[in-house]
Amino acid sequence: MKKRYTKIYSRAALFTAMAMCISFTMAGNPRTQKGDTTYLHLQKLNKSNKPNYKSFRITLPSVKTISAPVSKPSVLDDRQLLSNVVVFPNPVTDQINVKYTISRNSQVNIKIMDVLGNEVLTLLSRRVEPGEQKFTYSLENKLNSGFYFIRVVVGTESQIRRISIL
Q1: Which CB contacts under 8 angstroms, 24+ apart, belong to 27-34?
Q2: Mind spelling out the 3-state secondary structure of the chain?
Q3: Strand duo 38-39 + 157-165: pairing
Q4: d(CA 108, CA 129)
Q5: How many CA atoms lie within 13 A of 153 on its CB side?
Q6: Distance CA 148, CA 116 (A)
Q7: Segments making up each domain of the chain, as ranges
Q8: Looking at the domain that runs over 82-165, which CATH code has it been given?
Q9: Going residue by residue through the chain (166 aa), what tens digit of pLDDT does each one get?
Q10: What pLDDT is recorded for position 141?
């Protein structure tokens, strides 16, 4: 068993080392590249610009950053069916309010689940018109104190919010 793992890990280390060597040789001459990404430079080149064989220098290409576009959460996307799910008050004592927005007529299910993911209570299961919706449900003596999750399912989309019940 040990020989098998040793073979696998030694091969993986060998392939990694080969890939690093290939990528460093493909990068070109490190003395001609400029940039702030020079790492592991142990000794400088001597004054005659001849490489010192005791030095170890690696030059990596500069990294380009990509910024993702920021979208407003209040604007509905045509593909997004469910948005702006808000559960209040939190912590809950006797009554719970759920506010959400849907973009088209569809089936809505609102369920309370325990920490293990078991369905405890179904608050709503019906077809709802598009737009902003508000749903109120009385929880008097229906649930024990503790942490629960509310799952709002519209079509194939769902959002989960954590609540605590006092």
Answers
A1: 27/59, 27/60, 27/61, 30/57, 30/58, 30/59, 33/59, 33/61
A2: CHHHHHHHHHHHHHHHHHHHHHHHHHCCCCCCCCCCCEECCCCCCCCCCCCCCCCCCEECCCCCCCCCCCCCCCCCCCCCCEEEEEEECCCECCEEEEEEEECCCEEEEEEEECCCCCEEEEEEEEEECCEEEEEEEECCCCCCCEEEEEEEEECCEEEEEEEEEC
A3: unpaired
A4: 10
A5: 14
A6: 9
A7: 2-59, 82-165
A8: 2.60.40.3080
A9: 556 656 666 777 766 776 766 665 555 555 544 444 444 444 444 445 555 555 556 666 666 666 656 555 555 455 788 888 999 888 888 899 999 999 999 999 999 999 898 999 999 999 999 999 998 999 888 888 899 999 999 988 999 999 998 8
A10: 84
